[in-house]
Amino acid sequence: MSFSSDVKEELSLQLSSARHCKLAELSAILSYEGQIIHSGEKIFLKLQTENLVVARKYFTLIRKTFNINSDVSVKTNSSLNKSSVYTLIIRSASEVTRILQATKLPIGPEDSQRVSPVVHSERIGLASQLIIQNACCKRSFIRGAFLSSGSMSDPKKAYHLEIVIASLEKAEQLRDMIQTFTIDAKIVIRKKNYVVYIKEGSQIVDLLNVMEAHNALMDLENVRILKEMRNSINRQVNCEAANINKTVTASSNQMDDILYIRDTIGLGDLADGLEDIARLRIEYPEASLKELGAMLLPPIGKSGVNHRLRKLSMIADQLREHKEEKSHDN
Question: Whole-number mean pLDDT of the chain?
Answer without folding.
Answer: 86
